[in-house]
Structure formats: C-alpha cells, structure tokens
Amino acid sequence: MQADIVLLPGDGIGPEVVEQAVRVLEAAAQTAGVALRFKELLLGGCSIDKYGTAMTDETLADCRAADAVLLGAVGGPKWDDPQAKVRPEQGLLGLRKGLGVYANLRPVRVHPDLVAASPLKPDRLAGVDLIVVRELTGGLYFGQPKGREMVDGRERAVDTLVYTDEEIRRVVRMAFQLAQQRRRKVTSVDKANVLESSRLWRKVAGEVAAEFPDVTLEHMLVDTASMRLVTAPAAIDVLVTENMFGDILTDEASVLAGSMGMLPSASLGDGGAGLYEPIHGSAPDIAGKGIANPLGTILSTALLLRYSLKLPEAAARIEQAVDQAISDGLRTVDLGGALSTQKMTDEVLARLK
To answer: Are residues 251 and 177 located together in one domain of the fold?
Structure first.
C-alpha cells in the first residue's frame, strides 16, 4: 500500500514539529506495510512572502489530490497586521473550505502523570476523556455580508452568522457516530436563548438525535459549557458546537491537558483528504530554539493513520508510545522538563520500536 501525504509546515515552530512528527509517522506506517510519499508545500506567512498569497491554487490542488494533509502552524508578528488585505489565516480558512473538511475533531485526554501541569485541581481532572467536534466551514468566519464601511461619518463593521440545516446536520451526525464508539453521550452547545442560528442548531440536533436512540443528547448554552469544562470536564463525552464557539472552547479545554502542545486535531469531511494539525499556534517566541513540544503534532499523525489511512493499530502504537514516554517522566520545556523537540521525538520513537 502507498499513500501520498502533503506537508504544510507553515510558520514559526511549524517546520520544527512537522519535521519530527514525520519521523514517527514514517516509522509507524512502515511497520504497517505502508509506504508514504511526501510533498512539502507553503501555506500561511511563508507563502505570502514567496507568492503574495497565503495559499496558491496549486497548493490547494495538490492537497485535494493527496490522501492526507499534515499542517504545522501559520502566522506570526511579521504578518500580524489586522489591516492587511492578505493574512496567513486566510490560507488556513481557504484550505479547510477547499478540502470540504467541515468537522474538526479535538480529543482531550489528561494523562495521569501530567495532572500537576494543569492549573486545575487534580480531582477535577480525574477521568477526563472527551472530544470536541467543531463545525469548521460555516458561521461567523465565512458568513456574508462581511466588511467595514463608513455610515454617517462613523465606521461600522459587519460579520454575519449563517448556518443551513444541512451544515448543522452533517457535523452533528458525525458527533453522534463518534459517541456510539465511546460513552454514548453528546453535548450540543449553542446560544439558543439569543441567536436564531442557535435555535436552528438546537432543532436540527434534536432531529439527528432521533436517528441514534442509543445515544443521549443534552443541550447546553455556551456560557454554561465554558464553566462546565473547568468544573466538571469528566462529565463530557462528545461535545459538538458551531465554528466560533468551538474555536474558543477547544483552547479552553487545552488547559485540562496541561499544555496546548499536547493536543492534536483532525479535520474531516465526506471522503477526500483529511487535514491534521496540532491545536497550538506558531509560537514565534520559541521558533528556532528547538524546544517546541512535538507531541501534539505526533498525536495528529496518529489521527491521520486512524481516519485517513484506516490503520487504527498503527495509530494506537503511536499513542501508546507517547503515553509511555510521559509515564517515564520525559518532558519538554512547556511541561516543566528540559528535552528538546528532537530528543522528545527520539524517546517516542524508541518506545514505538
């Protein structure tokens, strides 16, 4: 078996963590009898510097033709001008839309040996094993009209929150399918007491729930959900929500694991290439120092093996190797240790073999 993987290292620490994660991905794929072919392309600020755009049409075409895409991170101070017409994030949003990946899966599991790295009390973290399913191609980030204008001598900005019933249905259905493989509970997060789009979300979620009588559905307002994530996170199994709410809640949930550097993600659609990336940003303050935590990216390659290449055993081997490295007391700087990006990867590889 052979698979084509597009690498988009991006900006900041992205190239560092992607380089190391590829070592683990290749090793795991090789043991499963799969040969990987890699093609490295530009996305984000580095693409702006070379091509004047955050993502070229050729890059998108290559990503669409691949079996999976592994992304590092985009952005940084060099391109951090809110007034700029071309920004690194446009490449990421365009890539998600272009690939048709409408569901972003972010698993959050607290390793027992990393409880001390989280600011939450240990009793709050016991048994935390949840997954957030964030709608990825609709909502405020893509709604039209959008823009700024002068009205009666005053500047006005407009963003539009739009969802169709089918956009909601497909991502909620994916959440229920995941819940069937887990603890059979879905928490649908909205703001139905205020937003019309959330009232549609709640209605459609109820309709989808009728298709899955073996799964329990609970509705929760986003403000309550933000509180529950830190007061009772173990009670959450699969949490599904719209684009902006998911963007915010998943960053909040990263605190549970002790570091944003620990968390992977998978962006999936109905077939086609999946997009895999750690949830952290480009971290320009530590870029080039060789101290970035590679585990979020390494665990993202496990999701790549599981969802795109259909190799669950190879995925589990990576996850077990990461768990063992942590259990053996190995830590990067963000977790209170001193291991470099490469050395941490070496230790994971040693346990993978």
So the answer is: yes
Residue 214, SS3? Answer: coil
Catalytic residue flag (residue 276) = no
Distance CA 116, CA 124 (A): 12
Report if residue 108 sits inside a domain: no
Q: What domain range includes position 136? A: 119-257
Name the catalytic one among 129, 159, 247, 323: 247
Point out the catalytic residue in the list 113, 129, 251, 323.
Answer: 251
The 10s digit of each residue's pLDDT in 199-228 is 999 999 999 999 999 999 999 999 999 999
Residue 152 designated active-site: no
Q: What is the mean pLDDT of residues 40-54?
A: 98
Which H helix or E strand runs over 96?
Answer: helix 88-99
Phi-psi region of 180 (alpha: psi -120 to 50; beta: other; left: phi over 0): alpha
The answer, yes or no, to whether residue 117 has pLDDT greater than 90, is no
Does residue 250 sit in the same domain as residue 269?
Answer: no
Query: CA-based angle 61:296:21, to the nearest 5?
Result: 65
CB 9, CB 18: distance < 8 Å:
yes
Q: pTM of whole model > 0.85? A: yes
Q: Are 92 and 131 in a shared domain?
A: no
For the chain, report the end-to-end CA distance as a whole number of angstroms.
Answer: 21
Q: For strand 274-278 and strand 264-268, is the pairing parallel, antiparallel, or unpaired?
A: antiparallel
Chain center to CA of 149: 33
Q: What percent of the chain has pLDDT over 90?
A: 89
